[in-house]
Recover the amino acids of this structure.
């Protein structure tokens, strides 16, 4: 009978050259199939792998070798210590997006109950991460996709988070009122971006807003100042090469204190700007 270690070795060989992290992918998939933690795989490496689990593992490895993301294969993705459900049709949360959450919390550290609008919430990652840290906050999460909102609502239920209201709509069209924070990780990949084929399994709607990749950012920044309270903040994630354009849009929209922040890889990732307190 095939042992856990043998199953992992064969999976790593199958994935080698096809993924950036064949060993990690193999461990995550086998741990998922066995319903255990990755650390326990090493402690049990000489144990036999049950035939049913082995067959399922081989199926997932084959799908991973064809390019399907690990998060879709396991159905979950970690974000800011939350374990989120993700399914095909919903963008997979990225570690770099955690910077946007960290910045909002830092800029609003003196606020006990801020009002927050999350535009393009997807799986609910940003809204739920902020809601957990700000339990008294009033958070509205908007997405144009009903299926994405269904996933976000399930994630809120799983996390026991009740201070997020989910609304279907396009950007600011479906929302009234003003907010202390407007945050967004909008689609920002250009239609001709050479990296787009590697993202083929994720929803194009959540990736590509138009030819230049700046269309969604323009739509948000142009209308956001009027929807911020005086002194309120807009924070938008964007591509590393789009930082200068984002800063220009923020300033043209009348926002002040405009600054771009770098992610852990040193790339310009999130631009923030503030509505003047007297405006």
């Amino acid at each position: 009978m095939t042992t856990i270690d043998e199953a992992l070795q064969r999976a790593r060989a199958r994935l080698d050259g096809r993924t950036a992290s064949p060993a990690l992918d193999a461990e995550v998939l086998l741990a998922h199939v066995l319903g255990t933690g990755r650390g326990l795989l090493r402690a049990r490496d000489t144990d036999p792998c049950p035939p049913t689990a082995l067959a399922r593992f081989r199926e997932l490895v084959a799908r991973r070798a064809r390019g399907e993301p690990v998060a879709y294969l396991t159905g979950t993705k970690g974000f800011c210590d939350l374990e989120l459900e993700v399914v095909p049709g919903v963008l997979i949360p990225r570690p770099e997006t955690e910077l946007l959450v960290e910045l909002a919390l830092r800029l609003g550290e003196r606020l006990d109950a801020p009002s927050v609008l999350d535009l393009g919430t997807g799986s609910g990652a940003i809204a739920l991460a902020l809601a957990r840290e700000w339990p008294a906050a009033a958070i509205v999460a908007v997405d144009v996709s009903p299926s994405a909102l269904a996933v976000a609502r399930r994630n809120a239920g799983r996390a026991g988070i009740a201070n997020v209201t989910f609304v279907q709509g396009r950007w600011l069209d479906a929302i009234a009122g003003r907010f202390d924070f407007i945050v967004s990780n909008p689609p920002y990949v250009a239609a001709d971006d050479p990296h787009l084929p590697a993202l083929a399994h994720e929803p194009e709607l959540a990736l590509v807003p138009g030819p230049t990749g700046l269309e969604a950012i323009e739509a948000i920044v142009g209308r956001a100042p009027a929807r911020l309270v005086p002194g309120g903040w807009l924070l938008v994630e964007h591509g590393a090469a789009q930082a200068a354009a984002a800063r220009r849009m923020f300033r043209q929209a009348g926002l002040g204190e405009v600054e771009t922040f770098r992610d852990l890889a040193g790339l310009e990732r999130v631009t923030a700007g503030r509505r003047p307190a007297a405006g």
Remarks:
- The beta strands are 76-79, 82-85, 115-119, 138-143, 164-168, 179-184, 228-237, 256-262, 268-274.
- The longest strand covers residues 228-237.
- Residues 51-65 form the longest helix (15 residues).
- The radius of gyration is 21 Å.
